[in-house]
Amino acid sequence: MSNTDGPMQAAQRLMRPTLSKRFYEKAEAAEIEGGWGVMLDGRPVRTPAKTILSVPRRELAEELAQEWQAQVEVIDPNRMPLTRLVNSALDGVSRESDAVRAEIVKYAGSDLICYRAEGPDRLVAQQTAAWNPVLDWAHDHLGVRFVVAEGVMFVSQPPEALDAVAREVENLDVLRLSALSTSMTLTGSTLISLALLRGRLSLQESWAAAHVDEDWNIELWGADDEAMERRAARFEEMQAAARLMALA
């Protein structure tokens, strides 16, 4: 421990995972049995659960290979958001898909965009501008209306609205389901995430819609550096989710 290390710094340093050294020269997409994978000097990449990483489209495998190729001295999962998301889909979501679908429907029952501020007027207007088009899309696409309330008191959504969300996600493959779940967790909104999945919102539009309240507070009180760093890291996850939606 250096002379400048305190107990907290030393503990944090010891808790950091040891990263594997890069052991390969070339990462490239390749056709494998059942789909497309990533080869490291001709050997297939495996998930943490030791399953051969396999995706249905070459374009997705190529983007995964780019993440592996971009590693320098060590393999840092924090710099491989798309790979992490695919690993999560193949190792986790594939085994718990019913539970993931149920969680997505549950989120829709208390969706961010259904809870509106009572004031000030400019915040109300910004929420309306960002969120009403998503509700209108949900009405057109799902054939149901969601209840909107002012304040934070819980409001129950019509059973038919939640049933419509359940039908919307019941046939999603594990990759898109994983991407949708990740987006939902990052945005706090099933409806924003479904609009992103179905092409109604762009990545930037969905991210902005999810952060109306946060951006309002930043405008009022200024930005906190650590909070902005965390937000940037979350946006990288959101980008990976949007890419997986597009390429899966």
UniProtKB/TrEMBL annotation:
It holds the Pfam family ATP12. InterPro entries: ATP12_ATP_synth-F1-assembly, ATP12_ATP_synth-F1-assembly_N, ATP12_ortho_dom_sf. Keywords: Chaperone, Transit peptide. It comes from the Bacteria. The keyword Transit peptide applies. Belongs to the ATP12 family. This is ATP12 family chaperone protein. It comes from Flaviflagellibacter deserti.
